[in-house]
């Protein structure tokens, strides 16, 4: 994705998928997936040429807008999901420990490490609004 965005950012004119794929030595499918992912982040936009029915892609030139969208649509949901999954993992491990499938020492090590991950996830969730304000 980064290569595609870089190519489009530096390109004086919008590029077709074929041009993107050829310039970066990618398959057309990879170029298509990458441009669609970038589009979902509002990092690129589709344009057209009057003489051609193909889609042409160009980078949005406001990096702060791209970063804001990435944080709100990608990073924030993933942090929330990670926290929920880690909590769920701790609960399942507790059940396994109580049933004898997991030793107390193994549970203790895993519990400590997962708690560290939960703490870091909570820190990132706390920092995210500050980072978003800085990017504006």
Can you summarize this structure?
This protein is mainly α. The chain has two domains: 2-59, Orthogonal Bundle (Arc Repressor Mutant, subunit A), CATH 1.10.10.10; 63-135. The protein has helices at residues 2-10, 17-24, 28-40, 63-99, 104-135, and strands spanning 15-16, 44-49, 52-59.
The helix-and-strand class reads: mainly alpha
Please provide the ordered H/E string of secondary-structure elements. Answer: HEHHEEHH
The percentage helix is: over 70%
Strands of the largest sheet, in order across it?
1-3-2
Number of self-contained structural domains: 2
* Overall pLDDT score: 88
How many strand elements? 3
Number of helices: 5
Radius of gyration: 22 Å
Commentary on this structure:
The chain has 136 residues and is mainly α. It has two domains: 2-59, Winged helix-like DNA-binding domain superfamily/Winged helix DNA-binding domain (Arc Repressor Mutant, subunit A), CATH 1.10.10.10; 63-135. 73% of the residues lie in helices and 12% in strands. The protein has helices at residues 2-10, 17-24, 28-40, 63-99, 104-135, and strands at 15-16, 44-49, 52-59. It has a three-stranded antiparallel β-sheet with strand order 1-3-2. Helix 2 (17-24) packs across helix 3 and helix 4 (63-99) packs antiparallel against helix 5 (104-135). The protein is elongated. The model has no long low-confidence stretch (mean pLDDT 88).
């Amino acid at each position: 994705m980064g290569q595609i965005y870089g190519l489009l950012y530096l390109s004086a004119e919008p590029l077709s998928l074929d041009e993107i794929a050829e310039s970066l030595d990618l398959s057309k499918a990879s170029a298509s997936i990458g441009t669609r992912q970038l589009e979902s982040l509002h990092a690129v936009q589709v344009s057209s040429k009057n003489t051609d029915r193909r889609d042409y892609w160009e980078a949005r030139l406001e990096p702060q807008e791209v970063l804001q969208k990435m944080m709100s649509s990608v990073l924030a949901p993933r942090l929330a999901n990670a926290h929920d999954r880690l909590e769920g993992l701790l609960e399942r491990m507790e059940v396994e420990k109580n049933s004898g499938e997991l030793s107390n020492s193994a549970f203790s090590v895993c519990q400590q490490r997962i708690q560290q991950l939960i703490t870091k996830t909570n820190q990132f969730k706390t920092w995210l609004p500050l980072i978003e304000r800085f990017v504006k």
